Amino acid sequence: MSLFLIKIMRLQLFGLPIINNLQDLSDHLHLSKELLYRLSKFNNYYYVSFSIDKKNGGQRTIHCPNKEMKAVQSWIMSNILRKVQLSDVAMGFREKRGIRENALAHKDNQYILCMDLDDFFPSIKYPMVYTVFKTIGYNDHVAHILTSLCTCGGVLPQGGVTSPIISNIICIRLDRRLAGYVGKHNVTYTRYADDFTFSSLSFLRLLRIKKFVERIIYEEGFTLNDRKTRFMGKSTRKKVTGLIISDEGVGIGKKEKRVLRAKIYQLLRNKVKEEDKPKLVSHINGWLAFLFHIDEGGVRGLERYAVSFNNAHGLIFPRKTNN
User: Fold this and answer.
1) Residue 115: is its pLDDT beyond 50?
2) Are 186 and 200 in contact (CB under 8 A)?
3) Of the N and C termini of the chain, which has fewer Cβ atoms inside 10 Å?
């Protein structure tokens, strides 16, 4: 049996679309070969780029694909990339996982080590993405086309539809190496995008694994942001991917809840200017929607507090649906 047929059978086995050339991709997407050629050959022209301020200083460049590129990337994500099985420790950009599940994994440990990568998406280069599509089973020509459709300027664009899931796929071996190594030392490991979290009942265990963990990360082609490496223990507030870990579980923390409660008070007691109310209502509702997925009990407590004022002023307290 020829290698070509073996690859076709492998793609069929995993429910992946058979693509041997640009025409096949055109047929699957119902888009012209000419458009797909332009999107892949001149991908830089199909993004809108802008910069936003980072929380800790500096700027992050966002590349948003236009309508056509976004549609193509959405198809690639749904029909190809989502068929790849990710590592269990990957908590970001996945259904039924998120910052809450990431923090909860470390709830029962007393000591936490957090590490962060430097320029995560831009550090994922064209060859790394190409290897993903080759490993899935596509030939050289198709792998180059798919890679070009998912990269911008030779790197994985932050803002691209396929970028999050590709980053998770590229980190599969990294995750397995780290989980296998720290597991032997009774250390828990999770990763949310470029945030690495390790926890243990022993501070010395975390101290011992740190150097080899750094070595594995560098060997996999990534660079750590040393300024964001931090240890947390019994006497410090344990904060993982923006959430506070306590004996009761995880949440936004008492301080943040008090601030949110104070803003609700200002709104319902008419302590703000009338023209500022819509913006404040939107701000509070955004926090309530976020808190609902982290700490539903906290939302219900704030709801009871707001109801006591007899005027909700447009506040929305989310509830679970029956679906």
Assistant:
1) yes
2) yes
3) C
